[in-house]
Automatic annotation (TrEMBL):
Its cofactor is Mg(2+). Its EC number is 2.7.4.14. It catalyses: UMP + ATP = UDP + ADP; dCMP + ATP = dCDP + ADP; CMP + ATP = CDP + ADP. It comes from the Eukaryota. Belongs to the adenylate kinase family. UMP-CMP kinase subfamily. It is found in: Cytoplasm; Nucleus. Binds 1 Mg(2+) ion per monomer. It is an enzyme of class 2 (transferase). It comes from Acer yangbiense. This is UMP-CMP kinase.
Protein backbone atom coordinates (compact mmCIF):
# COMPACT_ATOMS: atom_id res chain seq x y z
CA UNK A 1 0.00 0.00 0.00
CA UNK A 2 2.31 2.74 -1.21
CA UNK A 3 1.24 6.32 -1.35
CA UNK A 4 2.84 9.69 -1.75
CA UNK A 5 3.26 11.89 1.27
CA UNK A 6 4.50 15.35 0.52
CA UNK A 7 3.87 17.68 3.42
CA UNK A 8 4.55 15.67 6.57
CA UNK A 9 8.28 16.24 6.72
CA UNK A 10 7.65 19.85 7.67
CA UNK A 11 5.93 18.59 10.80
CA UNK A 12 9.18 17.07 12.02
CA UNK A 13 11.51 19.87 11.10
CA UNK A 14 9.21 22.45 12.63
CA UNK A 15 9.48 20.77 16.02
CA UNK A 16 12.45 22.13 17.88
CA UNK A 17 15.01 19.41 18.47
CA UNK A 18 15.40 20.38 22.11
CA UNK A 19 11.72 19.63 22.64
CA UNK A 20 12.16 16.23 21.00
CA UNK A 21 15.15 15.55 23.22
CA UNK A 22 13.13 16.31 26.33
CA UNK A 23 10.54 13.82 25.09
CA UNK A 24 13.22 11.09 24.88
CA UNK A 25 14.08 11.33 21.19
CA UNK A 26 17.78 11.83 20.50
CA UNK A 27 18.69 15.05 18.70
CA UNK A 28 19.25 14.54 14.96
CA UNK A 29 22.09 17.06 15.02
CA UNK A 30 24.05 14.46 17.05
CA UNK A 31 24.01 12.36 13.86
CA UNK A 32 25.64 14.74 11.35
CA UNK A 33 25.10 14.04 7.65
CA UNK A 34 22.36 11.54 8.15
CA UNK A 35 20.07 13.66 6.05
CA UNK A 36 22.84 13.65 3.44
CA UNK A 37 21.99 9.99 2.80
CA UNK A 38 25.08 8.39 4.29
CA UNK A 39 22.81 5.67 5.65
CA UNK A 40 20.97 3.61 3.04
CA UNK A 41 22.58 5.58 0.25
CA UNK A 42 21.69 3.18 -2.57
CA UNK A 43 18.13 3.12 -1.41
CA UNK A 44 17.49 6.81 -1.28
CA UNK A 45 18.98 7.27 -4.71
CA UNK A 46 16.48 4.84 -6.23
CA UNK A 47 13.61 6.31 -8.16
CA UNK A 48 10.08 5.87 -7.03
CA UNK A 49 7.99 4.42 -9.85
CA UNK A 50 5.25 6.44 -11.48
CA UNK A 51 2.63 4.58 -9.49
CA UNK A 52 4.36 5.54 -6.25
CA UNK A 53 5.91 2.10 -5.73
CA UNK A 54 9.61 1.47 -5.35
CA UNK A 55 9.54 -2.14 -4.33
CA UNK A 56 10.54 -3.93 -7.54
CA UNK A 57 7.07 -3.36 -8.88
CA UNK A 58 5.47 -5.24 -5.98
CA UNK A 59 3.14 -3.99 -3.32
CA UNK A 60 4.64 -5.05 -0.01
CA UNK A 61 2.46 -6.24 2.85
CA UNK A 62 3.64 -4.39 5.93
CA UNK A 63 2.91 -5.20 9.57
CA UNK A 64 4.07 -2.90 12.33
CA UNK A 65 4.62 -4.66 15.65
CA UNK A 66 4.17 -2.42 18.68
CA UNK A 67 4.49 -3.04 22.42
CA UNK A 68 6.64 -2.09 25.38
CA UNK A 69 10.08 -3.55 26.13
CA UNK A 70 9.63 -7.20 27.05
CA UNK A 71 6.03 -7.43 25.85
CA UNK A 72 7.07 -10.36 23.60
CA UNK A 73 7.26 -8.73 20.17
CA UNK A 74 10.38 -10.58 19.03
CA UNK A 75 9.12 -13.91 20.35
CA UNK A 76 5.80 -13.61 18.53
CA UNK A 77 7.50 -12.36 15.35
CA UNK A 78 9.50 -15.60 15.20
CA UNK A 79 6.24 -17.55 15.26
CA UNK A 80 4.66 -15.37 12.59
CA UNK A 81 7.73 -15.93 10.38
CA UNK A 82 7.48 -19.72 10.84
CA UNK A 83 3.74 -19.86 10.19
CA UNK A 84 3.13 -17.15 7.63
CA UNK A 85 6.42 -16.63 5.77
CA UNK A 86 7.10 -13.03 6.72
CA UNK A 87 10.52 -11.41 6.84
CA UNK A 88 11.24 -10.09 10.33
CA UNK A 89 12.88 -6.67 10.55
CA UNK A 90 13.53 -5.67 14.15
CA UNK A 91 14.35 -1.97 14.40
CA UNK A 92 16.34 -2.67 17.58
CA UNK A 93 18.35 -5.45 15.89
CA UNK A 94 19.16 -3.22 12.92
CA UNK A 95 20.38 -0.50 15.27
CA UNK A 96 22.43 -2.98 17.30
CA UNK A 97 23.96 -4.24 14.06
CA UNK A 98 25.14 -0.70 13.34
CA UNK A 99 26.76 -0.60 16.79
CA UNK A 100 28.57 -3.91 16.27
CA UNK A 101 29.68 -2.98 12.74
CA UNK A 102 31.26 0.18 14.15
CA UNK A 103 29.59 2.26 11.47
CA UNK A 104 29.61 6.03 11.43
CA UNK A 105 26.74 6.29 13.90
CA UNK A 106 27.39 3.15 15.95
CA UNK A 107 28.76 4.93 19.02
CA UNK A 108 25.99 7.50 19.04
CA UNK A 109 23.33 4.81 18.65
CA UNK A 110 24.88 2.92 21.58
CA UNK A 111 24.69 6.02 23.81
CA UNK A 112 21.08 6.62 22.80
CA UNK A 113 20.03 3.04 23.52
CA UNK A 114 21.87 3.00 26.87
CA UNK A 115 19.95 6.11 27.84
CA UNK A 116 16.68 4.41 26.92
CA UNK A 117 16.01 7.09 24.32
CA UNK A 118 14.78 6.82 20.74
CA UNK A 119 17.26 7.07 17.86
CA UNK A 120 16.36 9.80 15.32
CA UNK A 121 13.86 8.46 12.81
CA UNK A 122 16.01 9.36 9.79
CA UNK A 123 18.54 6.76 10.91
CA UNK A 124 16.10 3.97 11.76
CA UNK A 125 13.81 4.38 8.76
CA UNK A 126 16.67 4.33 6.30
CA UNK A 127 17.98 1.10 7.84
CA UNK A 128 14.52 -0.48 7.57
CA UNK A 129 13.97 0.69 4.03
CA UNK A 130 17.35 -0.64 2.96
CA UNK A 131 16.46 -4.10 4.30
CA UNK A 132 13.10 -4.04 2.54
CA UNK A 133 14.74 -3.09 -0.72
CA UNK A 134 17.28 -5.90 -0.59
CA UNK A 135 14.74 -8.57 0.37
CA UNK A 136 13.12 -10.93 -2.10
CA UNK A 137 10.13 -11.26 0.16
CA UNK A 138 7.23 -8.84 0.06
CA UNK A 139 5.71 -9.59 3.49
CA UNK A 140 7.40 -7.69 6.30
CA UNK A 141 7.11 -7.59 10.06
CA UNK A 142 8.58 -4.33 11.28
CA UNK A 143 9.17 -4.97 14.96
CA UNK A 144 9.60 -2.19 17.54
CA UNK A 145 8.55 0.43 15.08
CA UNK A 146 7.10 3.08 15.01
CA UNK A 147 7.87 3.91 18.60
CA UNK A 148 6.70 7.50 18.30
CA UNK A 149 4.65 9.74 16.05
CA UNK A 150 7.95 11.11 14.77
CA UNK A 151 8.93 7.54 13.73
CA UNK A 152 5.58 7.01 12.05
CA UNK A 153 5.67 10.25 10.09
CA UNK A 154 9.26 9.72 8.98
CA UNK A 155 8.43 6.23 7.69
CA UNK A 156 5.57 7.61 5.60
CA UNK A 157 7.76 10.36 4.26
CA UNK A 158 10.82 8.26 3.44
CA UNK A 159 9.17 5.07 2.16
CA UNK A 160 5.84 6.53 0.99
CA UNK A 161 4.23 3.44 2.50
CA UNK A 162 1.54 2.64 5.01
CA UNK A 163 1.20 -0.51 7.12
CA UNK A 164 -1.55 -3.00 6.31
CA UNK A 165 -1.75 -4.37 9.86
CA UNK A 166 -0.59 -2.97 13.21
CA UNK A 167 -0.22 -5.39 16.12
CA UNK A 168 -0.06 -4.03 19.64
CA UNK A 169 1.11 -6.32 22.44
CA UNK A 170 -0.58 -4.98 25.52
CA UNK A 171 1.34 -5.99 28.63
CA UNK A 172 1.40 -4.80 32.28
CA UNK A 173 4.60 -3.03 33.30
CA UNK A 174 5.52 -5.50 36.04
CA UNK A 175 5.38 -8.39 33.54
CA UNK A 176 7.54 -6.48 31.05
CA UNK A 177 10.14 -5.63 33.72
CA UNK A 178 10.34 -9.25 34.85
CA UNK A 179 10.78 -10.54 31.30
CA UNK A 180 13.42 -7.97 30.37
CA UNK A 181 15.46 -8.64 33.52
CA UNK A 182 15.39 -12.35 32.68
CA UNK A 183 16.14 -11.89 28.98
CA UNK A 184 19.80 -12.73 29.35
CA UNK A 185 20.96 -11.62 25.90
CA UNK A 186 23.69 -9.30 27.22
CA UNK A 187 21.89 -6.18 26.04
CA UNK A 188 23.13 -2.86 27.43
CA UNK A 189 19.56 -1.69 27.98
CA UNK A 190 18.33 -4.72 29.92
CA UNK A 191 18.97 -3.25 33.36
CA UNK A 192 16.52 -1.74 35.79
CA UNK A 193 17.64 1.90 35.32
CA UNK A 194 17.33 1.84 31.54
CA UNK A 195 14.09 -0.15 31.69
CA UNK A 196 12.46 2.50 33.89
CA UNK A 197 13.47 5.20 31.40
CA UNK A 198 12.27 3.12 28.44
CA UNK A 199 8.92 2.45 30.05
CA UNK A 200 8.39 6.16 30.72
CA UNK A 201 9.24 7.06 27.14
CA UNK A 202 7.14 4.18 25.83
CA UNK A 203 4.14 5.37 27.79
CA UNK A 204 4.35 8.95 26.56
CA UNK A 205 5.27 8.32 22.92
CA UNK A 206 3.54 5.06 22.03
CA UNK A 207 -0.08 5.87 22.87
CA UNK A 208 -0.53 8.47 20.12
CA UNK A 209 0.73 5.91 17.57
CA UNK A 210 -1.67 3.27 18.90
CA UNK A 211 -4.57 5.74 18.75
CA UNK A 212 -3.65 6.81 15.24
CA UNK A 213 -3.90 3.27 13.86
CA UNK A 214 -6.91 2.42 15.98
CA UNK A 215 -8.83 5.29 14.38
CA UNK A 216 -7.86 3.97 10.95
CA UNK A 217 -9.13 0.46 11.74
CA UNK A 218 -5.67 -1.13 11.41
CA UNK A 219 -4.93 -1.92 15.05
CA UNK A 220 -5.10 -5.42 16.55
CA UNK A 221 -4.57 -5.38 20.30
CA UNK A 222 -3.21 -8.62 21.73
CA UNK A 223 -3.29 -9.47 25.42
CA UNK A 224 0.41 -10.20 25.96
CA UNK A 225 0.03 -12.09 29.25
CA UNK A 226 0.18 -15.89 29.11
CA UNK A 227 2.50 -18.38 27.52
CA UNK A 228 4.03 -17.59 24.14
CA UNK A 229 1.84 -20.28 22.54
CA UNK A 230 -1.33 -18.91 24.13
CA UNK A 231 -0.51 -15.45 22.87
CA UNK A 232 0.19 -16.75 19.40
CA UNK A 233 -3.33 -18.23 19.27
CA UNK A 234 -4.59 -14.62 19.39
CA UNK A 235 -2.10 -13.56 16.73
CA UNK A 236 -2.73 -16.40 14.28
CA UNK A 237 -6.27 -15.41 13.23
CA UNK A 238 -5.13 -11.88 12.37
CA UNK A 239 -2.75 -13.23 9.73
CA UNK A 240 -4.98 -16.12 8.68
CA UNK A 241 -7.70 -13.58 7.85
CA UNK A 242 -5.32 -11.58 5.67
CA UNK A 243 -3.50 -14.48 4.05
CA UNK A 244 -5.89 -15.17 1.16
CA UNK A 245 -6.20 -11.50 0.41
CA UNK A 246 -2.43 -10.99 0.32
CA UNK A 247 -1.83 -14.00 -1.93
CA UNK A 248 -4.61 -12.92 -4.28
CA UNK A 249 -3.25 -9.40 -4.67
CA UNK A 250 0.20 -10.81 -5.33
CA UNK A 251 -0.98 -13.25 -8.04
CA UNK A 252 -3.11 -10.51 -9.60
CA UNK A 253 -0.12 -8.17 -9.81
CA UNK A 254 2.15 -10.85 -11.26
CA UNK A 255 -0.55 -11.57 -13.87
CA UNK A 256 -0.87 -7.92 -14.81
CA UNK A 257 2.90 -7.61 -15.24
CA UNK A 258 2.85 -10.71 -17.43
N1 LIG B 1 4.67 -15.12 26.78
C1 LIG B 1 5.84 -15.12 27.38
N2 LIG B 1 5.94 -15.61 28.63
C2 LIG B 1 7.13 -15.59 29.28
N3 LIG B 1 8.28 -15.11 28.76
C3 LIG B 1 8.22 -14.61 27.52
C4 LIG B 1 7.00 -14.59 26.77
N4 LIG B 1 7.25 -14.02 25.58
C5 LIG B 1 8.56 -13.70 25.58
N5 LIG B 1 9.14 -14.06 26.74
C6 LIG B 1 10.53 -13.86 27.12
O1 LIG B 1 10.61 -12.50 27.59
C7 LIG B 1 11.77 -11.86 27.12
C8 LIG B 1 11.38 -10.66 26.26
O2 LIG B 1 10.73 -11.14 25.07
P1 LIG B 1 10.99 -10.47 23.67
O3 LIG B 1 10.30 -11.31 22.66
O4 LIG B 1 12.45 -10.22 23.49
O5 LIG B 1 10.19 -9.09 23.88
P2 LIG B 1 10.31 -7.70 23.15
O6 LIG B 1 10.86 -7.94 21.78
O7 LIG B 1 8.91 -7.15 23.11
O8 LIG B 1 11.19 -6.85 24.01
C9 LIG B 1 12.57 -12.92 26.36
O9 LIG B 1 13.52 -13.47 27.24
C10 LIG B 1 11.51 -13.96 25.98
O10 LIG B 1 12.06 -15.25 25.87
N1 LIG C 1 12.03 2.46 16.45
C1 LIG C 1 13.05 2.26 17.30
C2 LIG C 1 13.31 0.97 17.82
C3 LIG C 1 14.33 0.81 18.72
N2 LIG C 1 15.09 1.87 19.09
C4 LIG C 1 16.17 1.76 20.07
C5 LIG C 1 15.68 2.28 21.39
C6 LIG C 1 15.20 1.02 22.06
O1 LIG C 1 15.16 1.15 23.45
C7 LIG C 1 16.28 0.02 21.60
C8 LIG C 1 15.92 -1.44 21.65
O2 LIG C 1 14.78 -1.66 20.84
P1 LIG C 1 14.15 -3.12 20.73
O3 LIG C 1 12.93 -3.05 19.86
O4 LIG C 1 15.20 -4.08 20.34
O5 LIG C 1 13.73 -3.38 22.22
P2 LIG C 1 12.66 -4.41 22.82
O6 LIG C 1 12.71 -5.61 21.97
O7 LIG C 1 11.32 -3.73 22.82
O8 LIG C 1 13.15 -4.64 24.22
O9 LIG C 1 16.55 0.42 20.25
C9 LIG C 1 14.83 3.13 18.55
O10 LIG C 1 15.50 4.10 18.88
N3 LIG C 1 13.83 3.30 17.65
MG1 LIG D 1 12.47 -7.12 20.75
Amino acid sequence: MWRRVTSLSSLISSKRSSTLNQMGIEDLSAFPDVTGNSIGQNVVAREVGKDGRFFKGKTPFITFVLGGPGSGKGTQCEKIVENFGFTHLSAGDLLRREIISNTEYGAKILDTIKEGKIVPSEVTVKLIRKEMESSDNYKFLIDGFPRSEENRIAFERITEADPDIVLFFDCPEEVMVKRVLNRNQGRVDDNIDTIRKRLKIFESLNLPVVNYYSKRGKLYTINAVGTADEIFEQVRPVFAAHEDHVEFEWVQEAWMRF
